[in-house]
Each structure stands twice: as structure tokens, then as C-alpha cells.
TrEMBL record:
Sorted UniProt keywords: Transport
Provenance organism: Cohnella ginsengisoli
Keyword Transport: yes
Keyword presence, Transport: yes
Name of the protein this chain belongs to: Extracellular solute-binding protein
Family: Belongs to the bacterial solute-binding protein 1 family.
InterPro entries, A to Z: Bact_solute-bd_prot1 (IPR050490), SBP (IPR006059)
Length: 382
């Protein structure tokens, strides 16, 4: 059998595959193939079209629509719901639902990756601030003020290539709170909506109050510079990906690091992110055997390897001792995949390169959101 799912970028990747192979060695000879992320969709489509696909493919559950629409992915619902939903109930349901289309499941999650805030707990303690499991934007600003006033350091750092998170998470959390998430993702909400205005003003407030490291240069620092400032105790909070928890802690070299949720601009937590996952092609030669591979690879025993290496596993039965990994697994319940940013490449490019910097550096709200609205209209008319 062929398992196209070995992720060498994860320190757990080859170990998990080896454990699966060992579990099933008396039944199957399993050939594992390294995931080619740059060409993944092409590899999968070519394999399925050949008539001799891999028995299992790695793919992102939230991006499965192409394969579902083309009827190229096996409906896993009967397998998940068998025996009273035994297999289904083993997953974090938020992550499992990322692979759900029209009421049916076509992919299952391996683990999550999303935006989080790493916290220097000693600085928080000095400022009299508790590490939150969820917080509003106002509470985030209150904490930032206390950190700046009482600890004398910058509250928050985020690298240039991650700065779109500020706007994306803001739009998403306000959209979820106001019941507009689906409409936003479909491009049905104009950029003149108050959601976008609120997001811009909140971000500029963070910049103007100099809570954003290093003040005037905040828009141009790299991820490495942001990490270095965090490690050196110059900032209390670092925005980074959840999947790098072990790397962040290792780099912190003894700092007391905790994980906080992303601050919500709405009244409900919602954070941009997704999941790594796997699916079975509809034309797999032995579908039941493919399901056995999935069940083994995503079992608590194999997924504990993933968690022990510092990653947030999607199997809720995994016993985790690391408090940071525990926090990340709990926070993954707030992950959302639908967002306005993904409406089209022109919109995502505008978020990446112009939206925040233009407004923060002096462009008017009407000018910035006027450009965004033109892009929205162009995109939905295509």
C-alpha cells in the first residue's frame, strides 16, 4: 500500500509513519512517500487521474472542495459514524468539521496550525496581568498598557510577513460575532461595512500607543527580529504559529513561556488557521484497507508521538503533559477556515502589502477601504 503522508518538516513525521508501519506490519507492506508541499495539489490530481492513486493522501481538510466537487474523495462519514461514532468522537470536532462538505466528511485532521500569542509569563507577572485563555481587544489593550507602564517593555511583536493576521483575525472574529462569517467569505459584505473600519482603527490604535515593537519600525521588522526581541525580554508577547511551539520554547532558553489566545475584536473567539489532514481517493483500490491506515496513523498511540514532539494533535484521546501543547490543543477549538482574505488573490495581496501599512501611515479610511471595495467588486464579478 502507498501512504502519501510522510511530513519530514515535523520532527514527529517519520516516527509516526514508522509506528503505523509497525502496527500494521502483519497485514500490509506500506510504502511511505514524503509530502511535496509545493506541488501537492498537482501530485494528488495526477495520481487520481492515473487510475492508480496512493491509498491515502495528505491534504488540507479546509481546501478539499475541489476534490469533493469532482467526486474524487471518498465519503468517510460511514466509517466515522460506525459503532456509535467511535472514530468520529476521537477527533477534535472543530478540526474534524474542516473536512465536512454538505454534511459529509471527506478528510480527517492530523493536527492544527493557527495564529497564537506566546507570552513571557515573568513580564506578565511583573505587570500584574494574567495569561488569558480568551480575551477581547479592549482587554488586550488594557494588558498592553499595564505591561508598558509597569514592566517598561514593549507589549507585542509580530513579524512583517505575519502582520496581515491583525486584520484577518479582526475581520474573522467580528464576522463570527455578528453572524456574517459566511457572507464575508462569499464576498457579500462590502468593505464599507463597519467591521472593516473597526479593524483598521484597532490596529492603528495598537501602533499609535506604541504597544507594537519597536514603535515606528513596527511595520518593517522580520519574524526573526520579532523572535529575538521576545527572547531578549524586550517584548512580552510574540505572534507566531501554533505549530512552532516547541521551537519557540527551545529558542526562549529558560524563559517562562505560556500561550495565550489571539485577542478577539468581537465578542466571540475566532482565529484564522486550519489543519493538516488526510483523505482517501474515491478510486482507491481497497477502501477498507485505506481506512485501516488512517485509523492507525491517527490513533492515540501514534498521535502521542506528534504531541510529545510539541505539536497539537487532533486526537482528543492523546495524553499530553506539556502545558504549552495542552493550551494549544484547547485553543484549536476556535480555529476557523472561512475568511474574506481568501476571496481572491488581489484581495489577499492587498491585505498582505497595503491595507495595514497605508492606514497606519496616514492614508484615510475612505481611501483604503475604497480600494478594498473595488477589489471586492472586481473579484465577485469575475
Amino acid at each position: 500500500m502507498t501512504f502519501y503522508g510522510k511530513i519530514v518538516e515535523y520532527t514527529s513525521g517519520e516516527k509516526m509513519v514508522a509506528a503505523m508501519q509497525d502496527q500494521l506490519k502483519d497485514k500490509y507492506e506500506i510504502d511511505s512517500i514524503q509530502v511535496d508541499w509545493a506541488n501537492l495539489e498537482k501530485v494528488v490530481k495526477t495520481g487520481i487521474a492515473s487510475g492508480s492513486p496512493a491509498d491515502v493522501y495528505e491534504f488540507w481538510p479546509q481546501n478539499m472542495k475541489t476534490f469533493v466537487t469532482a467526486q474524487q474523495a471518498l465519503d468517510l462519514t460511514p466509517y466515522l459514524e460506525a459503532n456509535g461514532g467511535e472514530w468520529k468522537n476521537a477527533f477534535n470536532q472543530t478540526l474534524l468539521d474542516l473536512g465536512k462538505y454538505d454534511g459529509k466528511y471527506y478528510a480527517v485532521p492530523l493536527g492544527s496550525n493557527f495564529s497564537v500569542v506566546y507570552v513571557n509569563k515573568d513580564i506578565f507577572d511583573k505587570a500584574g496581568v494574567e495569561v488569558p485563555t480568551e480575551w477581547t481587544w479592549d482587554k488586550f489593550l488594557e494588558a498592553s498598557k499595564a505591561i508598558k507602564d509597569k514592566a517598561g517593555v514593549y507589549p507585542f511583536a509580530i513579524g512583517k510577513d505575519l502582520q496581515n493576521w491583525l486584520a484577518r483575525n479582526g475581520v474573522m472574529s467580528l464576522g463570527v460575532s455578528e453572524g456574517k462569517q459566511d457572507a464575508l467569505a462569499a464576498g457579500e459584505v462590502p468593505a464599507t461595512d463597519a467591521i472593516f473600519s473597526t479593524v483598521l482603527k484597532n490596529i492603528k490604535d495598537l501602533y499609535d500607543k506604541q504597544y507594537w515593537y519597536p514603535g515606528k519600525g513596527a511595520l518593517t521588522i522580520s519574524r526573526d527580529e520579532a523572535k529575538a526581541a521576545f527572547y531578549q525580554g524586550k517584548v512580552a508577547m510574540l505572534a507566531e504559529v501554533s505549530a512552532d511551539a516547541r521551537g519557540i520554547i527551545s529558542g526562549a532558553q529558560g524563559l517562562n513561556v505560556a500561550v495565550a489566545s489571539w485577542p478577539s475584536m468581537g465578542d466571540k473567539n475566532a482565529v484564522l488557521g486550519g489543519a493538516d489532514g488526510l483523505f482517501i481517493p474515491a478510486n482507491a483500490k481497497d477502501k477498507d484497507a485505506s481506512v485501516e491506515l488512517l485509523k492507525s496513523y491517527l490513533s492515540a498511540d501514534v498521535q502521542k508521538i506528534h504531541a510529545d514532539e510539541g505539536y497539537a494533535a487532533a486526537n482528543v484521546n492523546v495524553q499530553v503533559s506539556d502545558p504549552v501543547v495542552q493550551s494549544i490543543m484547547q485553543l484549536s477549538a476556535d480555529v476557523q477556515a472561512k475568511e474574506f482574505y481568501n476571496l481572491g488573490p488581489k484581495i489577499s495581496d492587498f491585505f498582505d502589502k497595503e491595507l495595514i501599512s497605508s492606514y497606519v501611515l496616514g492614508s484615510s479610511e475612505s481611501d483604503v477601504l475604497g480600494k478594498l471595495e473595488k477589489l471586492r467588486q472586481q473579484t465577485i464579478q469575475q
